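Private note to self, pasted from the team thread so I don't lose it. Backbone tokens:
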């Protein structure tokens, strides 16, 4: 079962780098704002997306943590499976991402943790690169060398959640950095659109044993 821990201090200082105010707005549409920035001499931009969902917290967390539905809404994901589950939203996962020809597809191993502040009810789902013995890159896949993302879900009412998504990732291989930056928001934009479609069809009264709601 997911560990419920005191997250408020963590979120307030949560990588002051990740939520600093030096972001550039790339685009705004349908209540979604997409930001990018370069930090600490990095060549690949970080990405941040903010939007509001008019629904309860539990269905959102359930979708993010459902490995069976992952390929249905995450852009170009063609395989996603648990390797070592430690309870809902916690464990190691293996995934494959479809890249356009002539580039090789990518694969990755991540560790995901889901935590909730017991007072504010803010939920953070965080995924980072992981290295598990016995899970090298397979066949012609290029192993993604660096990946870190966070979903921060803040309830602002009984049926309203403010969502922040942050991503810092390097797909590896010989893709020029300028080309990565040029298309960095494409996958995320489609993922959020897909997410909204999936949530519109979900069970609105869903409850999760590991998530408390206001």
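Design output:
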């Amino acid at each position: 079962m997911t560990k419920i821990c005191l997250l408020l201090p963590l979120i307030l200082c949560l990588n002051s780098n990740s939520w600093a105010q030096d972001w550039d707005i790339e685009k705004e549409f349908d209540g979604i704002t997409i930001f990018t920035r370069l930090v600490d001499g990095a060549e690949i931009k970080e990405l941040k997306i903010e939007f509001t969902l008019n629904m309860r917290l539990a269905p959102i967390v359930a979708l993010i943590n459902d490995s069976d539905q992952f390929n249905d809404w995450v852009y170009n994901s063609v395989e996603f499976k648990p390797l070592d589950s430690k309870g809902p939203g916690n464990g190691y996962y293996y995934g494959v991402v479809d890249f356009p020809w002539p580039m090789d597809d990518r694969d990755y191993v991540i560790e995901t943790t889901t935590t909730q502040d017991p007072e504010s009810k803010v939920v953070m789902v965080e995924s980072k690169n992981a290295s598990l013995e016995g899970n090298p890159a397979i066949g012609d896949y290029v192993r993604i060398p660096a990946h870190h993302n966070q979903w921060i879900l803040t309830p602002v009412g009984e049926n309203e959640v403010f969502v922040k998504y942050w991503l810092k990732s390097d797909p590896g291989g010989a893709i020029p950095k300028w080309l990565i930056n040029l298309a960095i928001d494409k996958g995320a934009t489609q993922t959020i659109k897909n997410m909204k479609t999936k949530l519109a069809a979900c069970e609105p009264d869903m409850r999760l044993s590991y998530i408390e709601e206001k």
